[in-house]
UniProtKB/TrEMBL annotation:
Pfam families: GYD. This is GYD domain-containing protein. The lineage of its organism: Bacteria, Bacillati, Actinomycetota, Actinomycetes, Micrococcales. It comes from Pseudarthrobacter quantipunctorum.
Length: 108
């Protein structure tokens, strides 16, 4: 199954709710991805431009998009970005296929 890396940030209101009622959000994230047949591999909070990161496994892009849309639509986050991760093997295959494409730069 494909892996996905999500970066998220909470709204100030969400942080306020979590301060008043601390909650381990890994359980919620795990339930969301399992509902589409996937698996949560990790959940971390961080300093920097994003408040946290998730590593997910999902059956396909549509399933991961459904989870991302459901979370984003909930209003607790100020940002949510998901990146599809490619294995080294998939990247090697892509490199081989790229070598077969006869790219022409604009204006040449």
């Amino acid at each position: 199954m494909p892996l996905y890396l999500s970066k998220f940030s909470y709204t100030p209101e969400t942080w306020g709710r979590l301060i008043n009622n601390p909650e381990d959000r890994r359980k919620a994230a795990q339930a969301y991805i399992e509902s589409v047949g996937g698996k949560l591999h990790g959940f971390w909070y961080a300093f920097g431009s994003h408040d946290g990161y998730n590593l997910w496994e999902a059956p396909d892009n549509v399933s991961m998009a459904a989870v991302a849309l459901a979370i984003s639509g909930g209003g607790a986050l100020s940002s949510f970005e998901t990146t599809v991760l490619l294995s080294v093997e998939d990247t090697m295959e892509a490199l081989q296929k790229a070598g077969e494409i006869k790219y022409r730069p604009p204006g040449s």
